[in-house]
Amino acid sequence: MSRNDSLLAWTRTFADNGGPRYLQIVDFIEQAISDERLKAGDRLPPQRLLAEHLGVDLTTVTRSYTEARRRNLLEARGPAGTFIASPRVDLTQLVDLSMNIPPPPAGVDLDDLLRQGVSQVLIHSDVDLLMTYHLGGGSSTDRAAGAAWLAPMLGTVDEGRVLACPGAQSALAALVLSQTRPGEAVLAEPLSYPGLLSAAVQLGRQVVAVESDADGMRPDALEMMVKKHKARLVYLNPTLQNPTTHTMPPVRRTEMAALAQRLDLRIIEDDPYWLFSAAAPKPLAYYAPRQVFYVSTLSKCLLPGLRTAYVAMPEGMPQEDVLGALRSFVLMSTPLMTALTTQWIHDGTAAALQEGIRTEAWARQELAHRTLGDSALANAGGIHLWKALPAHWSAADFVQKARMEGLDVVAEDAFRTAGVDGMASRQAHIRISLGRARSRFELVNALRRLNELAHRRNQRQVVV
């Protein structure tokens, strides 16, 4: 292999739908570092040589090297050339693997996208209307956008059933407040979304665990707990569940839907990760449209800053109670962000952005599986992992130790619902979120450090 060939061995072929080519070149570098085809200290080819090899102009390569340096992937050494940078450890800031947010989208220039989107909103909207009060639930245009967003999951949805809400947390709180009375139980799986647990506590409700198996919540256990607690509301996150990443199979979904219809239960189906699954089953709302409140937030699959979630109300159910509950603690969505979301859904930007995020999420899942070497994580999907710890660690001790080493993850205790002690796994677990890391490079380094820590014996357990 010639010297030039060795300098260029890490490059790949451009994807037609992979976004701007300068960003694809950065992705080539980042992927090669993650795969260890490029290592710290390796020299990159001169910009003119790379431009000629890839068939692009010099400006494109210059822009890609600048972006790669901004991401701390490269360092320039004057006349000596450009080299792969050594990993930088920021001792003043944690690497956040605790917050479930979508990763930076593959092949998308988000700065340009935001500028263009806001510009289009201002062109097509009355600025005075963007700066005044709006009724809860969204305008007819906002609801139509919500119906379009929900179509891949639910098929055709009457926009009159759709509410546009300022995020999933407020939607969940409004549903719990409107569908239960103080002191009532909300039934959920033994490990559930902390936001639901927090909302219930603040509203004076209790979340009670229902036994689950490998397919999710057990219908027989649910029926028993409904009778025991006289419960009317069930919370489920059936696709790439947070935190376990399990997906409820279609047969169990039909059983749960049939039980809800027979017992006249209401189900909150919190489904933020459905679009990340390569083969997600139909939602529960598809099987029981008159029993299920279907919640889909853009915070987990697009951008948290949009502060938009959609609720598909059960067929035939009035909306006044839910909207009244919503208005009691959050008067309205931010009009500018709602308008931007509506614009992006109607013009196709949201779908393109989500495709880039999904591509990046899948790439990060693959990197995590390879880095952690854990076969149990192979088909996790989504933007988080549920990692079992070696027997010598408790989840709380591991999280504390990881934090001391600049890594932030979440212990299983944060997800436990009431009455779960007898159902808890004997093996400690942590949730690792993959989206907050600024790059695949940063993520892989953080995961390697976590993996090394997991296999290190906890010093607190060593008898001297």
TrEMBL record:
<dbReference type="InterPro" id="IPR051446">
    <property type="entry name" value="HTH_trans_reg/aminotransferase"/>
</dbReference>
<keyword id="KW-0805">Transcription regulation</keyword>
<dbReference type="Pfam" id="PF00392">
    <property type="entry name" value="GntR"/>
</dbReference>
<feature type="domain" description="HTH gntR-type">
    <location>
        <begin position="19"/>
        <end position="87"/>
    </location>
</feature>
<dbReference type="InterPro" id="IPR000524">
    <property type="entry name" value="Tscrpt_reg_HTH_GntR"/>
</dbReference>
<keyword id="KW-0804">Transcription</keyword>
<keyword id="KW-0238">DNA-binding</keyword>
<dbReference type="GO" id="GO:0008483">
    <property type="term" value="F:transaminase activity"/>
</dbReference>
<dbReference type="InterPro" id="IPR036388">
    <property type="entry name" value="WH-like_DNA-bd_sf"/>
</dbReference>
<keyword id="KW-0808">Transferase</keyword>
<keyword id="KW-0032">Aminotransferase</keyword>
<keyword id="KW-0663">Pyridoxal phosphate</keyword>
<dbReference type="InterPro" id="IPR036390">
    <property type="entry name" value="WH_DNA-bd_sf"/>
</dbReference>
<protein>
    <submittedName>
        <fullName>PLP-dependent aminotransferase family protein</fullName>
    </submittedName>
</protein>
<comment type="similarity">
    <text>In the C-terminal section; belongs to the class-I pyridoxal-phosphate-dependent aminotransferase family.</text>
</comment>
<dbReference type="InterPro" id="IPR015424">
    <property type="entry name" value="PyrdxlP-dep_Trfase"/>
</dbReference>
<dbReference type="InterPro" id="IPR015421">
    <property type="entry name" value="PyrdxlP-dep_Trfase_major"/>
</dbReference>
